[in-house]
Design goal:
The chain has one domain. The protein contains 8 helices and no strands.
C-alpha cells in the first residue's frame, strides 16, 4: 500500500513546520521491521492505545487487531509495528504542534482502516470487493482531504515566515543609514583600540 511514503512526506512537512528534526524514513522502516521481528509486549500496548486513539468512533478497532492475530501472527505483528512507529511519530509531533499531530493521527487512522480493507479484499468475493472498493475510495478521498489541510497549514506558515522576512528586510532598508553608521563606528573603534 502506498500510504507510508505519502504520509511520511506529510509528517516530514509537519515536523519541519513545527520546528522538529525530520524523521529518517529508512530508520523508521528499520524500526518497523525490528518491532515486527522482536515482537515486544510494549509495542502491542502502544499499538492498541493508538488504535483506540485513531479509531474512537470504531469500537471494533482493537477487536480487528485480535482477529488479525488469530488469522496471521506475522501480519498482526507487521500491523502492530506500523501502528507503534506511527504512534511515536504522532506523539513527537504533538509536543510541538497539536493541530498537525491531530491531522496526521487522522491520516494514520484512515491508513489503518485501508490496510484492514486491503486484507479483507484479498479474501472477498466479487460483490464484497465492490463494496470494499467503494469504502477504499471514500477512505482515500478523506485521506486526500487531510493531506490538503496539512498543505494549507504549511502554506500559511510559509506565508507568515515570508511576511516576517519582508518586514525585517524593509526595517533594515528604512534604517540603512543607522546600521551603516553603527558598523563603521564598530570598525573604527576596533581600529583605534590599543593592541
Amino acid at each position: 500500500m502506498y500510504f507510508p511514503k505519502v504520509t511520511l512526506a506529510f509528517v516530514l512537512i509537519a515536523s519541519a513546520a513545527a520546528g522538529q528534526e525530520m524523521p529518517n524514513p529508512q530508520a523508521m522502516q528499520m524500526q518497523v521491521q525490528k518491532i515486527a521481528q522482536e515482537r515486544p509486549r510494549e509495542a502491542e500496548a502502544a499499538a492498541r492505545a493508538f488504535i483506540l486513539l485513531i479509531a474512537r468512533e470504531r469500537a471494533e478497532g482493537a477487536r480487528s487487531l485480535d482477529s488479525l492475530k488469530a488469522r496471521s501472527i506475522d501480519q498482526y505483528w507487521a500491523e502492530v509495528a506500523q501502528l507503534t512507529v506511527q504512534f511515536d511519530m504522532v506523539q513527537n509531533l504533538a509536543r510541538r504542534d497539536s493541530v498537525r499531530a491531530q491531522l496526521v493521527a487522522q491520516m494514520f487512522g484512515i491508513e489503518s482502516y485501508a490496510r484492514e480493507a486491503q486484507r479483507a479484499y484479498r479474501a472477498a468475493n466479487d460483490a464484497q470487493r465492490a463494496t470494499l472498493r467503494t469504502q477504499l475510495e471514500t477512505l482515500i478521498g478523506h485521506h486526500f482531504d487531510i493531506e490538503n489541510q496539512l498543505r494549507a497549514l504549511e502554506m500559511k506558515d510559509i506565508e507568515r515566515r515570508l511576511s516576517e522576512v519582508r518586514a525585517e528586510t524593509q526595517r533594515r532598508i528604512d534604517k540603512r543609514a543607522e546600521f551603516v553608521k553603527w558598523s563603521v563606528d564598530d570598525i573604527i573603534r576596533d581600529a583605534t583600540r590599543p593592541n
